[in-house]
Design goal:
Order of helices and strands: EHHEHHHEEEHEHEHHH
Distance between the termini: 54 Å
Strand content: 5-15%
Radius of gyration: 22 Å
Helix content: 25-40%
Strand order of the largest sheet: 6-5-4-1-2-3-7
Structural class: alpha/beta
Shape: elongated
Number of strands: 7
Largest sheet: 7 strands, mixed
Number of helices: 10
Length: 245
């Protein structure tokens, strides 16, 4: 990718998740692109909330959305405590260069990436046509593991680099998906909002309530009178109850 991406290139990615640490690895190259288009291959950051009976699909969706700040295999990068600086740069880049859409259907979409430099200005050099359009597949997520920068938990991770004219088919496939309004929903603003939350200054009270929400939201959805504590025990008269309440 470092060799394929040139000034004014158009990069397209269809993947399960996007990590700002993958952006960091390719920051120099991604600043040169004219356009970056990303499709979440499964419903991610979409407005519709999963129904209760589809909870098994909702949990993976939460994992896909949280991967913006790094996946479970990028813990070492998160531990470097550089998230705020990376998030600020990534959010700024997205506002200028990137557009994110999400698949809103239940249809499976295999992940792949394309780099189209056919329209790039190459007056200072002659580039063979087969190098102007390249595709990479299979790609699971746009993460440092998928880029080959981190080990992850893969026994192996082989990605094929495909050149034109075969790469052209992937570019056309992506464009077809991208322009299908029945299947795609623009989620760029939500992605920027989520990444921006990493570097925004928040009051302790705000963090407290956000923490309560994440700890108890799923619990409160499932609770009923049958499982509530017995008030006869007097717990509501305790000092800790009055403080928490």
């Amino acid at each position: 990718l470092q060799e394929s991406i040139r000034r004014e290139s158009k990069m397209s990615v269809a993947a399960a998740c996007f990590s700002m640490y993958a952006y960091q690895e390719l920051k120099k190259q991604l600043e040169q692109v004219n356009e970056f288009s990303f499709i979440f291959t499964s419903p991610t950051f979409v407005k519709e909330r999963a129904e209760k009976e589809k909870r098994e699909f909702y949990i993976p969706r939460l994992n896909r959305e949280s991967s913006l700040y790094g996946t479970e295999f990028e813990i070492k990068l998160r531990n470097e405590m550089t998230q705020r600086a990376i998030a600020r740069e990534c959010a700024d880049w997205i506002r200028r260069k990137a557009t994110f859409k999400s698949n809103t259907t239940g249809e499976n979409m295999a992940g792949f990436m394309t780099v189209d430099s056919g329209a790039a200005q190459t007056a200072y050099m002659t580039v063979a046509s087969k190098e102007e359009q390249v595709a990479y597949m299979p790609i699971n997520g746009f993460t440092t593991v998928d880029l080959g920068c981190e080990r992850g938990n893969n026994s192996y991770n082989m990605v094929n680099r495909i050149e034109a004219p075969f790469a052209t088919q992937y570019i056309q496939l992506f464009d077809t998906l991208w322009n299908d309004k029945a299947k795609m929903q623009d989620v760029t603003d939500v992605v920027v909002e989520n990444i921006s939350s990493v570097y925004n200054e928040n009051s302790p009270e705000f963090i407290y309530f956000i923490t309560l929400y994440h700890v108890f939201s799923e619990f409160l959805d499932d609770i009923s009178e049958d499982v509530l504590p017995n008030e006869a025990t007097g717990f509501k008269q305790s000092k800790i109850w009055s403080m928490l309440y």
